[in-house]
Automatic annotation (TrEMBL):
Family stated for the protein in its record: Belongs to the peptidase S1 family. CLIP subfamily.
UniProt cross-references to Pfam families, sorted A to Z: Trypsin (PF00089)
InterPro entries: Peptidase_S1_PA (IPR009003), Peptidase_S1_PA_chymotrypsin (IPR043504), Peptidase_S1A (IPR001314), Ser/Thr_Proteases_Immune/Dev (IPR051487), Trypsin_dom (IPR001254)
Organism phylogeny: Eukaryota, Metazoa, Ecdysozoa, Arthropoda, Hexapoda
SUPFAM superfamilies registered for this protein in UniProt: Trypsin-like serine proteases (SSF50494)
Origin superkingdom: Eukaryota
The keyword Disulfide bond is annotated on this UniProt entry: yes
Protein name, entry field: Peptidase S1 domain-containing protein
Coiled coil location: none
Gene Ontology molecular functions: serine-type endopeptidase activity
Segment forming the signal sequence: 1-20
The keyword Protein transport is annotated on this UniProt entry: no
Amino acid sequence: MKTANFLICLLWVCLNITKGNFQDSSQGAIANEMCKIYTENAKKNNSCPIPLFTPLISRGLFAERAEFPHMVQVGYKGENGTEWLVSGFIISKNYVITVAHGTRPRDRNAPEIVRAGVTDKADLSTAQIRTIESIIVHPEYKPPIKYNDIALIKVKEDFIFNKFVSPICLHTNEENPDVKGIHSGWGPTNYLEDRPTHMVKILVNFDSNESCNKIYSRQSTSSLPQGIIKDRLVCAGGNTIDGCQSESGGPLQIFRRDESGTNCMYDAVGISSFGVPCGISQKPSVFTRVSHYIPWIEKNVWPQK
């Protein structure tokens, strides 16, 4: 009887594999498949972001148009108009990732709109503005604790993907990359600057969680009761001269090398969560580690998969 049941189960598995119904349950299978689709479309439409960094640049530079087409600004409407206070990044035609703490501001209403396709705030010729339909905050985000600082924003109208607006891939590997990271946003690049109107970019080193823990060991136990948890947080920028904590919600990213060996897409490794004030050198910024939240992201963004 046991042998018969085993043969029936084996036959069922074989039939489903043959029909293409057997799904890969490994972490990141859906995210990686979507990345392949995004890459193919970008190459087909000649809209791959172009790497514009020169070697060994560690201080902030202005981003070029279409260099970070996944970047969005999150807008809060008030008496004086819309304030763009938090960043985010596009991961699908109707979803953006940002930080949870940016969706629950203390001194203003929840965000209502997002704006994509903007590199310079003075040039909105390629902008796409979308109304927020809903916000999904990670269920384990419990402020003032800084863990699980991640949220999904769903927009009412799909983004129109082009050279200036397109998604980013998600980094599914749990280990730090062995290359420099790229941090983009609208935050100042040193303590002498105000918030710029033009998007900036900065190359950063990935820091070990051990060294990061030493630096943040004096952080209030109410916000980091277990310190810098490796699988949930990633640190970067500790060796960057005059580095600053950029606008929250922006990605810590790397170039993704595809099967053909070319760079066409970025991988989002982290989400800018918290850091130190400008002018304090040797202190890294801390990012929510994307790979830890892949199952939650996939479940909400691509449930049909």
